[in-house]
Amino acid sequence: MLTFDIFLTLFFALIVSAVTVSIIYTTVSLGISPMPSSNKAYLAMMQLADETGSGTIIDLGSGWGNFVIRIAKRYPHRQIIGYELSYLPWLISNLIKKFLGLKNLTLHRQNFYQIDLSSASVLVCYLFPHAMAKISDKLQQEQAGVDYLISNNFALPSFQASKTIQLDDFYKSPVYLYKIAKIKT
Ligand SMILES: C[S@@+](CC[C@H](N)C(=O)[O-])C[C@H]1O[C@@H](n2cnc3c(N)ncnc32)[C@H](O)[C@@H]1O
């Protein structure tokens, strides 16, 4: 009995360690953790998404699915796509999607720098400055048909935001809406 208890404890310790190592590894290699947008940021992003018509929304780095799952429920007739490289957040968000039967949500375990943006109408992200610079380059090089980009907290270099919501949080964090096609420089 004691041996079984020890086995069980070691088994769970192994699982927790593997999960921790996996998250730390992807956080270090990607430069960002799978930290979800705050509820205030989500509400602002949703308010901005309401102004973007009915096209496909792509979350660049969908994390645990906090944004994509809520937005897929909010817009059942819109296609929502998430790209996430971190294995555990991608797995958990996929399980929740299946449990909730969200047929308009697709979650890919793929590097979003390598995706074809031609089917995207709206890009959404909560990343960091270096990633925003790479996305800006990608948008300018590919001349993709992206109409809008919504960014939590980080500005998109070389583009002018058409609307900014300042959150009522400690840092007065901005959430930006960019109209890509019209304001491209
Ligand atoms: C701060 S989280 C944002 C999660 C979600 N978008 C939200 O707002 O709640 C950023 C996520 O982007 C993912 N990520 C970063 N670079 C990536 C890349 N090149 N391809 C796919 N996912 C990436 C990270 O693994 C992380 O989970």
Automatic annotation (TrEMBL):
The UniProt GO MF terms for this protein read:
protein-lysine N-methyltransferase activity
Q: What's a single GO BP term from this record?
A: methylation
- The superkingdom listed in its UniProt entry is Bacteria
| InterPro entries listed in its UniProt record | FAM173A/B (IPR026170), SAM-dependent_MTases_sf (IPR029063)
Cite the entry's keywords alphabetically: Membrane, Methyltransferase, S-adenosyl-L-methionine, Transferase, Transmembrane, Transmembrane helix
Q: Which SUPFAM superfamilies match?
A: S-adenosyl-L-methionine-dependent methyltransferases
Stretches that traverse the bilayer? 6-32
Q: What name does the UniProt record give this protein?
A: Methyltransferase
Source species taxonomy: Bacteria, Pseudomonadati, Pseudomonadota, Gammaproteobacteria, Alteromonadales
